[in-house]
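Internal tracking record. Fields below are filled automatically when a chain is submitted to the structure queue. Please do not edit lines marked as system-generated. If the sequence contains nonstandard residues, flag them in the REMARKS field before resubmitting.
Queue: standard
Priority: normal
Entity type: single polypeptide chain
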Amino acid sequence: MKTRIALAQLNCIVGDFAGNAARILAAAETAFAGGAHLLLTPELALTGYPPEDLLLRPAFYDACRAQLEQLTQDLRRFPGLRVVVGHPWLPAGAAPRTNDLSANGGMAHGAGYNAVSVVADGAVLATYLKHELPNTEVFDEKRYFAVGHEPVVIELNGLHIGLTICEDVWHPGPAARAKAAGAQVLLVPNGSPYNLDKENVRLDVTRARVAETGLPLVYVNLVGGQDELVFDGGSFVLDAAGQVVARMAQFEEGVAFVDFDGVRPLPADIAPTRSLEAKVYAALTIGVRDYVTKNGFPGVIVGLSGGVDSALVLALACDALGADRVRAVMMPSRYTADISWLDARDMAGRLGVRYDEIPIAPMVDAFGGALAEEFKGLPEDATEENIQARIRGTLLMALSNKYGSIVLTTGNKSEMAVGYCTLYGDMAGGFAVIKDIAKTLVYRLCEYRNQSEDFSRRDVIPERILTRAPSAELRENQKDQDSLPPYDVLDAIMRMYMEDNRSLADIIAAGYSEADVRRVTRLIKINEYKRRQAPVGIRVTHRAFGRDWRYPITSKFQE
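SYSTEM-GENERATED OUTPUT FOLLOWS
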């Protein structure tokens, strides 16, 4: 007998119980109309993922429980359809995990579970509790959840379906236990964030589980932005040989179907793969759109400099929100080259955004006058440069306060790593779009945006912005490379040291000069205090400066 399974790739919002339930209901309506027997939704779809410390609040569990009960009744309009719903679950009479470890012998006590329930015809038919709790990179589920132990297998049209959740599939045990309990197919709801090449890693891991168990696998993932995380969807189905027989597009909501002939999944639509630049650009776009929209900002403000970083951020903002919700502000100083404001005007015109110029020279002079006596006899240095950056930050934040739009900062990962940025200056803002994008990748993304047929309007970034030497333009004839190694060298050292945890000796052995390696790694170390005060920004690598980088500011350790 044939069984049709629907895969719901949903963009959920943390804490929006009613909204998330409505998304599940809409997906169920599509699935039911399409003849599906079962609908699989992502991990914690009812609450959004990750809820973080909301999971420490009893009221959060109460609201979730009430919404699950309501959803269970609402799904009765689709008779016979099984819906797998992700949600946190707290046993009756239990309390959420607490951070107070003084009781119970110093052990954390009272915890809920990361769960999925199978709902049909007004009843919860089964509930599975996640076995493996990730506690690496951006994950800290052991802070909130207890570990489940029992497999859950449901029967549908004679097909026995085993449930697992996300991290479970990264370990052999849960899949093996499901098979031992009689499973013929594995369902895996996920809240798996995007990073470079993550989709290939997922395939390797799931293929390993298929090879061990001989069972086909259905993998459904969240899509959308949640603070610094971006979920890319990319849901897929593997047959018992580990071949992809269905795949949904990345970074897009939707419902897809796969038919099983007995235990064999039949070939279905397979979305094409995309280039690395296309995927990263899509991740940044959806990250901006969801952060701005989900948090209720009317629009964004970008400080446009005529340089490559602000050009990329402006293009991303327009693609994410539309030009009518984006405002560009150029703030030239006496050190701003003519080509900078000409290129800024040109790009704003190409994109059709509101563009304003606010010269800062009078304000710089006012600060200079106020500090003249204090600074008398002292040479000019980074102090005067930083004053210019801070004036610009103040102006952007004033516009933000007045109009309600959020300021998008334009600093990249290379600058954030070595502190080539000004606190309360170019770091001032609400969302750091390219915080995890190395400078060399910035150029690649700009070339992609200008040349790709994915966009109806290409060549939005003037060519001169991409070919001129990068400069902060805070003093005469300034170039970034006056203060930093070439960006290809800096980025490579940063990647090996910061992202891959390679030792200094390893990096030097890879062909980089000891002077450059020690200089870059020293700058990374001493600028931790700046990064702690930086706005939240989109994560696209497996290790970003944020929740998965936790180095002390005060430290005497030297490698």
